[in-house]
Amino acid sequence: VQLVESGGGSVQAGGSLRLSCAASGYRFSSHCMGWFRQAPGLERERVVVIYRNGVTKYADSVEGRFTVSKDTAKNTLYLQMDSLTAEDTAMYYCGVDVYESNWCRASTLWTTWGQGTQVTVSS
Q1: Are 68 and 93 in contact, with CB atoms under 8 Å apart?
Q2: Cα–Cα dist 29/8, whole Å
Q3: Number of alpha helices (DSSP H) and beta strands (DSSP E) in the chain
Q4: How far from 61 is each of 12, 47, 116, CA to CA, in Å?
Q5: How many other CB atoms sit within 10 Å of the CB of residue 55?
Q6: Whether the predicted pLDDT of 28 surpasses 90
Q7: Do 94 and 115 contact (CB within 8 A), yes or no?
Q8: How many other CB atoms are there within 10 angstroms of residue 121's CB atom?
Q9: What ranges make up the beta strands (E) of the chain?
Q10: Closest residue by Cα to residue 103 from 24, 50, 36
Q11: What is residue 101's predicted lDDT score, i.e. its pLDDT?
């Protein structure tokens, strides 16, 4: 199982970025996946998880600004980030729960993560 993120970069406040997570080694459509982020000195936090049936759970801080999507033909998970603020600056990680379920387990149980992509928003 492998996850490879891309699309990070530097942007001014109010701008947009789209992150991609290319997945391989498992049945892409059968697992809970998500985007998480970690800023320096802080704990990793959930940005959004997407259940295998398409249900999404966003963090309150990004609701209405970020949109997650999946392209099953390309085995790729996306995160469209709009109206970015300096508080969104962090390393962003894609993760997958390799346990097949209709539910998303707590991310502390997830064992498969990408290498991360840095997002820096200047105010």
Answers
A1: no
A2: 24
A3: 0, 11
A4: 18, 8, 20
A5: 12
A6: no
A7: no
A8: 20
A9: 2-6, 9-12, 17-24, 33-38, 45-50, 56-58, 66-71, 76-81, 90-96, 112-113, 117-122
A10: 50
A11: 86
